[in-house]
Sequence to fold (605 residues):
Amino acid sequence: MNLVLESLHRRPRLVAILLAVLLAALPFLMGFGLGNAWLRVLDFVLLYVLLAIGLNIVVGYAGLLDLGYIAFYALGAYLYAWLASPHFGLHLPFWAVLPIGAAFAGLFGVLLGAPTLRLRGDYLAIVTLGFGEIIRIFMNNLNAPFNLTNGPQGMNLIDPVSVAGFSFGRPLHVFGLTLPPTYFHYYLFLAFTLLAIFVAWRLQDSRIGRAWGAIREDEVAAAAMGINTRNLKLLAFAMGATFGGLAGGLFAAFQGFISPESFTLWESILVLCMIVLGGMGNIPGVVLGAVLLTMIPEALRYLGDLQRATLGQVVVDPADLRMLLFGVALVAMMLFRPAGLLPSRQRRREFAAEEGLAEQVQANLYDTRN
Amino acid sequence: MSLLSVRGLKVAYGGIHAVRGIDFEVAHGELVCLIGANGAGKSSTLKGLMGLVAHGGEIRFDGERVHHAATHTIVARGLRLVPEGRGIFGRLTVAENLDMGAYIRRDTPGIKADLARAYELFPRLAERRAQLAGTLSGGEQQMLAIARALMGRPRLLLLDEPSMGLAPLMVRKIYETIATIASEGVTLLLVEQNANLALKVSQRAYVMESGAITLSGPSAELANDPQVRAAYLGE
Fold:
């Protein structure tokens, strides 16, 4: 196994080709192997990867703890619904609506960022949490006096994505096969996810990425280096929010229906868990975290069947068990791999150095070395 | 004309007036020190100069008013602070810290030359360039903080208590370096509690007490001033 891994490591091109083939074939493997329900899960995996990549820019790169991230997802989704559903009678094409939604969410990212520039850590987390709730409550209540969001009923009949007259909303019949819409959405989401990964990856080691790293370490020192901390923090909020808004638009088009229920605090926390669990600041880690935290709860649904098969009845509701196992998994992770499953180079160093640091602090008190 | 001229600088935190309208100057190529006890307002003065805290009064750097400017634009003009407590990026390596020091510069050959110079000035940093800055000793961190500020080619370098928390041997080493930097033509404003050292290395000095400047003059004269000797030199 190690030999295989090693030889693969020496052939990055081969790995890329294999990965591309796997990603291209994945929906067919999933669809025919596990059923179409899993294909839908796969689509959600990609949406969550997109969200996690976006939040990672804010939290992982710039170190700004954002607990209201799902608000941008909501804004992107609602904007899509406003511009492409019978609600206002507007039916703009998706390629126009998606960028508008992303930009709209990005603008709100700046609006949230501006008043919170002076806040750090816990205080920032509380304000962003409040922001997330405000957006959700607005969506829940803006059905009167003017019906903007249709309130708790949500908005439905949202236009599906359609490319060159081919609608993603209907199944396709080819060669005697019926391909449900989940197939097309998979490739669409994959394209956007790969784009987001590319952008995030390029940002990481750029001038902007280094400045974010400095702000995360010590904001005053970063300013003393000549970094425009205000603009860069706003940029981090805006970039993260843009990806969130993009994911929201895709979500609305995919579901055809959105309601405030999809945008609760729990969703924000889930996305944050994905990046913490996977490895904050490291793209492969973040992707892995999103994949695991979306797939595992789905897989745990089978626990009901398992109980029925072995015990003859469902003793513990799988839904309850899922949350329990989820909690246990998180606690175990923090104990055994506090830097995440695939930590970034820097965070790995941090955690490895932590013990050395403590000794050093002690030594510094009595610094006698010359 | 002086490089830095400050008129009526005030810094207040809520109702507490840390700096109560002080005037001072730093000329090109000078090494000036600002001495005073704990809480005299020395660090607040430097933070005010850098635009890191809200402040009143007029600050002119090279003839231009900078008192309304944001910190990063002040840095871009050539004012650099080595903050109290060093403010190094503990979780970046020594080399990455130095790299951040040159953040606003784009002249790659010049940065390379300055990096080589920094390692020459502080051979210990060269030995530890791949080490996390947070694992350095206090004195090494202070060296790194100074070297990092120099990477920005400052026209005026502000040093906030470089001797703080260091062993006497290390303090001497840091001060030797400060003298070397000054002899190379970098203008310095040094804030110190350790009046003895600061007066020895500097040309002119200001004495600060509860937010106001009470004495000023050539360092050699102040070192012999009975008031200063009694208050700061422990005699």
User: Anything to note?
Assistant: DSSP finds 15 helices and eight strands in chain A. The first strand of chain A starts at residue 84 and ends at 85. Confidence is low (pLDDT under 50) at residues 365-370 of chain A.
